[in-house]
Design brief:
Layout: H1 2-11, H2 25-31, H3 37-44, E1 55-58, E2 63-65, E3 79-82, H4 85-90, E4 94-95, H5 108-122, H6 129-135, H7 140-151, H8 155-173, H9 178-184, H10 190-201, H11 205-226
Parallel strand pairs: 2-4
Antiparallel strand pairs: 1-2, 1-3
Pfam families: Ada_Zn_binding, HTH_18
InterPro entries: Ada-like_dom_sf (IPR035451), Ada_DNA_repair_Zn-bd (IPR004026), Homeodomain-like_sf (IPR009057), HTH_AraC (IPR018060), HTH_AraC-typ_CS (IPR018062), Tscrpt_reg_AraC-type_HTH (IPR020449)
GO molecular function: DNA-binding transcription factor activity; methyltransferase activity; sequence-specific DNA binding; zinc ion binding
């Protein structure tokens, strides 16, 4: 709430857009940063007549859009309203790839950063190409192709890599069962998890844990002897 008030104060010093009728100026000044019913209707109806009168950002995806953006309507409680693209950028939101709220084409590398950030914080959930495309605003085909070109691996391969790294850490540092670890990294099938782990690391999860525990035990003994 403090943030919204702050934004309203900053917004008060911004020059008004010429497209806003004079009579509405007072009302709009009072509503700055507020998700009014009118704005919410504009967002869910993709109403292009509100474009550049305000922008909406979605806290969960860290992306901001024009009201007319064809992306799926966000959860109302996650929406923040900005008067212009600069405010949204200053608050660390990124321009949507689909509706290009800054009026500029988002470089592919920035888009791939958005996708990567999303995967980094959601890899233990069910991350499909369709979910990625929806959350990061692009077609599944285009997203897959762009991601692979920029990162040298597909989004699916990147998800697997993160899952295996997390699994290694859990195998080494915890006593969780293999099934629990598979589940914790977002894989509901233990046999598939074991197969993938072996394919990517060259050892089974159990072997990996055994070797790692042996190594740390040896390290501990050396440490105790020397001290
Ligand atoms: Zn958008």
């Amino acid at each position: 709430m403090v943030e919204v008030k702050l934004m309203a104060n900053i917004g008060g010093h911004e020059p008004k857009h010429h497209s806003i009728p004079m009579a509405d100026d007072a009302k709009i000044a009072a509503d700055e940063g507020q998700l009014t019913d009118e704005r919410w209707q504009a967002i869910i109806n993709n109403d292009a007549s509100y474009d550049f009168q305000f922008f909406y950002a979605v806290k969960t995806t860290c992306i901001f859009c024009r009201p007319s953006c064809k992306s799926r309507p966000p959860n109302k409680q996650n929406v923040r309203i900005f008067q212009n693209a600069q405010q949204a950028l200053a608050a660390h939101f990124r321009p949507c790839k689909r509706c290009k709220p800054t009026g500029q084409r988002l470089p592919d590398s920035e888009w791939v950063d958005q996708i990567t950030n999303f995967i980094d914080s959601h890899f233990s959930e069910n991350v499909t190409l369709e979910i990625l495309a929806e959350m990061c605003h692009g077609s599944p085909y285009h997203l897959h192709r762009t991601f692979k070109r920029v990162k040298g691996m597909t989004p699916g391969e990147y998800v697997q890599q993160l899952r295996m790294n997390k699994a290694k850490q859990l195998l080494a540092d915890t006593d969780k069962t293999i099934t629990d670890i598979a589940f914790a990294v977002g894989m509901s099938s233990t046999p598939y998890f074991v197969t993938l782990f072996k394919k990517m690391t060259g050892t089974t999860p159990t072997e990996y844990r055994h070797r790692h525990k042996q190594a740390s035990e040896t390290g501990r003994l050396h440490y105790e002897r020397e001290n």
